[in-house]
Amino acid sequence: MTSEQTLLRRINLFTWLFIVGLAISGATAIPLVSEVDVLARIFGVSNTQPQSIAIVQWLARVQTALHSVNEQYPFLFYGTDWLAFGHFVIAIAFIGALRDTVRNSWLFTFGMISCVLLVPYALIFGAIRGIPFWWRLIDCSFGIFGIIPLLLCKRWTGELKAQGP
């Protein structure tokens, strides 16, 4: 049987991993234009030459769209600012699991449900919005990889509960 302190250390480490992941993911929703510009440079996107690789074609299209929106309708990015805010608030909520792991273990269940729901959400709304399937799979990976630390935390919290007060 694993000691209480070891379980708490593991839970805290993986909870922090999840919190940091949420915060970083949220932060990347704010500077979209500059981020895509960097990716476009890395992948060698050129607006003057036809692109043959799918990801390069996609990045060129996204870069063009973002620059157009930024020049003509910058207020639309307010939506991604709120997306980032949502990530930050959810990350803050998980501090409750750090403060009282057993009492707030419901947060791990909430997070796992969110990770599972992310997959059909990305697949359905991505298709509606014309997002390439391979990109939707990248989006789905956040739910697939995000659920791993939460499953472990939930399991370890169960072991903690079994040990008693």
Task: Spell out the blueprint of helices and strands.
Elements: H1 4-27, H2 32-42, H3 54-72, H4 78-93, H5 95-99, H6 106-128, H7 133-162
Helix pairs in contact: 1-4, 1-7, 2-3, 6-7
Write down the secondary-structure element order: HHHHHHH
Number of strands: 0
Principal-axes geometry comes out as elongated
Mean pLDDT: 94
- Helical content, roughly? over 70%
Structural class determined from secondary elements = mainly alpha
**Number of helices, counting only DSSP H or I runs of 4 residues or more:** 7
Number of individual domains: 1
| Major sheet | none
- N- to C-terminal separation? 15 Å
Quick synopsis:
The chain is an all-alpha fold. The chain has helices at 4-27, 32-42, 54-72, 78-93, 95-99, 106-128, 133-162. The model has no long low-confidence stretch (mean pLDDT 94).
Written description of the protein model:
The chain has 165 residues and is an all-alpha fold. It has one domain (4-162). It contains 7 helices and no strands. Helix 1 (4-27) packs antiparallel against helix 4 (78-93). The longest helix is centred in the last third of the chain and has 30 residues, at 133-162. The two termini are 15 Å apart. The relative contact order is 0.15. The model has no long low-confidence stretch (mean pLDDT 94).
Search tags:
165 residues, mainly alpha, 78% helix, elongated
